[in-house]
């Protein structure tokens, strides 16, 4: 059964202006449904194959394919195909990452799923979207479904766009909220 | 592609040199030729696109193989910088223009990239550098490891194969 309070909390997490919900830490961000990454943390990408290719704009990029996994700090990304685009200053840290095919991004208990995701390390944002199916973001038993889900990876906030559905499920064994005095079913009087 | 041979310093091979390009039927009768300071050059038209230098070479005309020591391989084109590879030893297959470099190969793949591997093969027909031994590639603070690689010299396209792992360390 869905609890009105929990639904409201989830809606607030999605709708309140970014400044008001600015998290204090990565774990705080995870508590709010969003994803937050540590840009200076070690970045590891593993795959069965990789190929160096130049982008149309002449930037160096590496395309990883088959069983691709990327981890940075406590954030993990899995997909079938990933392109990491590197800046022209020869840094080893990619500016931009595009992932395709069964994309799963996880941090703590938060898990985003979509067909295509792009991460902009410069703007500190990520986008998760699906053609045909829907993008989803799950935290424990609760989830958000939308046509596209956008993340501010520095603030840990999230924005869902297009036919948004939010499902908040009661935890097994959770005690029902006690009605406040004066509300129907509060008893006393 | 034609491979030309330049003998910068040649010791103990006084009359042997003219026989290097001898017809196959005459080869078994010739003893191995030992050379020092050898340069093999490959041309495409007027453009020198391949240069292989070795401190020492032992050319076995019967086996049609040249065994090389302290080898340096350089592939260049007009518009792009050279790709250079060095190894303690190598073998040149005279009929195919193919090389096998071994004993710890190191080189440059693309701009700012360095790689190392135990053994590397140059396939002249497809103009590829191929390694089936573990490869380590470095570019700035990026370290990539894989079980093997293929580097197409024509397109400068690098493909890493098997258990690819790319790491960027903490800043």
Counted up, domains of chain B total 1
CATH architecture descriptor of chain B:
Sandwich
Query: What's the main sheet of chain B like?
Result: 6 strands, antiparallel, barrel
Which segments of chain B are poorly predicted (pLDDT under 50) over 5 or more consecutive residues? Answer: 1-27
- The whole-angstrom Rg of chain B is 17 Å
Our count of domains of chain A comes out at 1
Q: What fraction, in percent, of the residue positions of chain A are helical?
A: under 10%
Coarse structural class of chain A: mainly beta
N to C succession of SSEs of chain B: EEEEEEEEEEEE
Strand content of chain A: over 45%
Describe the structure.
The complex is a heterodimer of chains A (189) and B (171). Chain A has helices spanning 4-15, 26-31, and strands at residues 43-54, 60-72, 75-85, 96-107, 110-120, 125-129, 135-139, 142-146, 148-152, 157-161, 165-167. Chain A is mainly beta. Chain A has one domain: lipopolysaccharide transport protein A fold. In chain A, strands 1, 2, 3, 4, 5, 6, 7, 8, 9, 10 and 11 form an eleven-stranded antiparallel β-sheet that branches. The longest helix of chain A is centred in the N-terminal third of the chain and has 12 residues, at 4-15. The two termini of chain A are 29 Å apart. Mean pLDDT of chain A is 78; it is low at 1-30 and 185-189. Chain B has one domain (2-168): Lipopolysaccharide (LPS) transport protein A like domain (lipopolysaccharide transport protein A fold, Sandwich). In chain B, strands 7-8-11-12-10-9 form a six-stranded antiparallel barrel. The radius of gyration of chain B is 17 Å and the shape is globular. The termini of chain B are far apart. The model of chain B is unreliable at 1-27 (pLDDT under 50).
């Amino acid at each position: 059964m869905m609890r009105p309070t929990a639904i409201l909390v989830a809606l607030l997490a999605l709708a309140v202006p970014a400044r008001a919900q600015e998290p204090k830490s990565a774990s705080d961000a995870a508590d709010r449904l969003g994803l937050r990454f540590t840009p200076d943390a070690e970045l590891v990408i593993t795959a069965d194959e990789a190929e160096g290719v130049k982008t149309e704009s002449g930037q160096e990029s590496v395309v990883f394919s088959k069983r691709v996994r990327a981890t940075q700090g406590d954030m993990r990304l899995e997909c079938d195909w990933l392109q990491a685009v590197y800046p022209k200053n020869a840094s080893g840290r990619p500016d931009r990452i595009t992932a395709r095919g069964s994309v799963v991004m996880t941090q703590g208990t938060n898990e985003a799923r979509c067909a295509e995701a792009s991460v902009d390390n410069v703007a500190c944002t990520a986008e998760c979207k699906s053609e045909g199916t829907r993008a989803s973001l799950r935290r424990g038993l609760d989830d958000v479904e939308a046509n596209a889900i956008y993340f501010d990876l520095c603030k840990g906030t999230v924005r869902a766009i297009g036919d948004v559905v939010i499902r908040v499920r009661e935890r097994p064994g959770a005690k029902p909220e006690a009605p406040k005095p004066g509300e129907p079913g509060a008893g006393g009087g | 592609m034609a491979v030309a041979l330049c003998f910068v310093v040649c010791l103990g091979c006084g009359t042997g040199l003219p026989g290097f390009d001898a017809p196959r039927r005459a080869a078994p009768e010739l003893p191995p030729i030992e050379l020092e300071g050898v340069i093999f050059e490959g041309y495409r038209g007027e453009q020198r696109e391949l240069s292989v230098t070795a401190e020492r070479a032992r050319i076995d005309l019967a086996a049609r193989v040249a065994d090389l020591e302290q080898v340096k391989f350089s592939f260049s084109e007009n518009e792009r910088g050279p790709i250079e590879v060095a190894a303690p030893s190598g073998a040149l297959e005279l009929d195919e223009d193919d090389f096998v470099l071994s004993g710890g190969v190191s080189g440059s793949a693309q701009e700012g990239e360095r790689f190392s591997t135990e053994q590397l093969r140059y396939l002249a027909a497809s103009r590829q550098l191929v390694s089936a031994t573990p490869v380590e590639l470095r570019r700035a603070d990026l370290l990539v490891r894989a079980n093997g690689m293929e580097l197409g010299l024509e397109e400068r396209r690098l493909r890493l194969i098997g258990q690819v792992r790319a790491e960027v360390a903490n800043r």
